[in-house]
């Protein structure tokens, strides 16, 4: 059981973002924050951390429940809880 994990790896393993390269890009653009602080791809995350991810028109707030080095698809969704999902309306 991992105690902490790189943000980009967590996003990939948990399948919140399918590919690590994409997770890295999103983080580098400053679209992810961990506990209210803008995070880099290498930021270490741990259980209980709150992530806010901005995907284009959608903002997802999730809490990390579990860290796994490798997770099968069925287990991946148990790694986090979606707290809030918001859509930005087009202007």
TrEMBL record:
Assembly description: Associates with stalled 50S ribosomal subunits. Binds to RqcH, 23S rRNA and the P-site tRNA. Does not require RqcH for association with 50S subunits.
Pfam families: S4 (PF01479)
CDD domains, sorted: S4
GO biological process, one term: rescue of stalled ribosome
Biological role: Key component of the ribosome quality control system (RQC), a ribosome-associated complex that mediates the extraction of incompletely synthesized nascent chains from stalled ribosomes and their subsequent degradation. RqcH recruits Ala-charged tRNA, and with RqcP directs the elongation of stalled nascent chains on 50S ribosomal subunits, leading to non-templated C-terminal alanine extensions (Ala tail). The Ala tail promotes nascent chain degradation. RqcP is associated with the translocation-like movement of the peptidyl-tRNA from the A-site into the P-site.
Domain RNA-binding S4 stretches: 5-69
HAMAP family xref list: RqcP
Protein name: RQC P-site tRNA stabilizing factor
Signal peptide interval: none
Chain ranges passing through the membrane: none
């Amino acid at each position: 059981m991992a105690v902490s994990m790189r943000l980009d790896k967590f996003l990939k393993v948990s399948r919140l973002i399918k590919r690590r390269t994409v997770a890295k890009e999103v983080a580098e653009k400053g679209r992810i924050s961990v506990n209210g602080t803008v995070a880099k791809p290498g930021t270490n995350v741990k259980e209980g951390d709150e992530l806010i991810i901005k995907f284009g028109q959608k903002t997802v707030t999730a809490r990390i429940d579990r860290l796994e080095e490798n997770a099968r698809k069925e287990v991946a969704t148990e790694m986090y809880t979606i707290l809030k999902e918001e859509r930005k309306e087009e202007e």
